[in-house]
Amino acid sequence: MNEQLKILSGSAHPELARLICQNLGTQLCDATLTTFPDGETFVQIKENIRGGDIYIVQPTCPPTNQNLMELLIMVDAVRRASAHRITAVLPFFGYARQDRKDRPRVPITAKLVANLLVASGVHRVLTVDLHAGQIQGFFDIPVDHLYAAPVLMKAIRERGIEDLVVVSPDVGGIKMTHAYAKALNAPMAIVAKNRVSAEEVEALNVIGDVAGRNVLLVDDLTETAGTLTAAAELLRKHGARNIYAGVSHAVLGDKGKARIAESPIIELFATNSVPQAVGDKVTTLDISGLLAQAIIRIHNNESVTSLFDI
Fold first, then answer.
1. Percent of the chain beyond pLDDT 70?
2. Residue 54 and residue 252: Cα distance in Å, rounded?
3. pTM over 0.85, yes/no
4. HSE-CB for 169 with a 13 A CA cutoff
5. Can you list the positions of beta strands (E) in the chain?
6. 250-306, pLDDT tens digit by residue?
7. Quick one: average pLDDT of 215-238?
8. What distances in angstroms separate CA 24 from CA 21, 144, 284, 295, one per listed residue?
9. Any catalytic annotation for residue 193?
């Protein structure tokens, strides 16, 4: 292609953007991002990007609204600088859990965010492990949906955990749990839960045999770690030995970090899709290589399907 590939980073996760550039053997595009005293965001691209193939790396993690608005402003700046194509690289897609009307008079914010991205001038979206895969259909532009499973499973296999059972911390995660169990050649189990509030979860029962077995809890996302830690406590009561957990996005605040540290979980595997994936017992796995491979394949109009191989 004649269009020059350039990587831009917002302020949400510049370290991940730099790692992607290292994998691609390039430098971050020079840009200025500042915040005025009244909170308004200002963006200026300091390089000529006319006709370029531009990739803007900006997970919409906390502060979610600030990072989302910054992304929209960056897209507008790039579009007005006459870029040929703009790809929003969203390692973590915020608002993904607001994907349907589950109560009266509530928004479908995931669809609203998709509309905003398209309206701002995004031509393509590259993301990792959406909370609900059907969110891809909220966009009227191409969406490349990557999976963190190959990165997580590589780390899990390196631990050499024997006699393993893969457990879903809730009924909604059965599909992901089955994929992990099949790839790891392990049986699966399910924890039935009841959500008390946004931060409190009650684990009710275990479906499957975990007594005397090592356990791997898998989920796409954890923030306050209520679901994971409640499941871990219940699994310990049912006789589980060593309890591990693996999540694609660990958007951990202080409460989540404290819960993980105090829980029976020995080790939490999480990708660096967000900068919050750190803390006691947290092992952060780098997905910059996966994103870099996807970017170069998109740039060269090649298939990204082989990146899904586990």
1. 95
2. 30
3. yes
4. 25
5. 5-9, 31-35, 41-45, 53-57, 85-90, 124-128, 143-146, 164-168, 188-195, 201-207, 214-222, 243-250, 265-271, 282-285
6. 999 999 999 999 999 999 999 999 999 999 999 999 999 999 999 999 999 999 987
7. 93
8. 5, 18, 21, 9
9. yes
Asked if pLDDT for residue 1 goes beyond 80, the answer is no
Report the side by side order of strands in the sheet with 282-285. Answer: 201-207, 188-195, 164-168, 214-222, 243-250, 265-271, 282-285
pLDDT at 212 over 90: yes
φ, ψ at 223 (rounded to 5°): -120, -70
pLDDT digits (tens, 9 = 90+) for 172-184: 889 999 999 999 9
CB 131 within 8 A of CB 113: no
* Token pair in block for residue 281: 């017992």
* pLDDT given at position 172: 80
- Report angle CA 127, 131, 136 to the nearest 5 degrees: 55
Q: Given CA atoms 143, 271, 28, 63 in this order, what sign does their dihedral have?
A: positive
How far apart CA 232 and CA 265 sit, in angstroms, is 6
Say which of 6, 154, 175, 193 is annotated catalytic.
193
- List CB contacts of 22: < 8 A, sequence separation 6 or more: 288
CA distance 187 to 281: 25
Token digits of residue 195: 């959500």
Distance, CA of 120 to CA of 141 (rounded, Å)? 12
Half-sphere exposure of 131 (CA within 13 A, CB side): 16
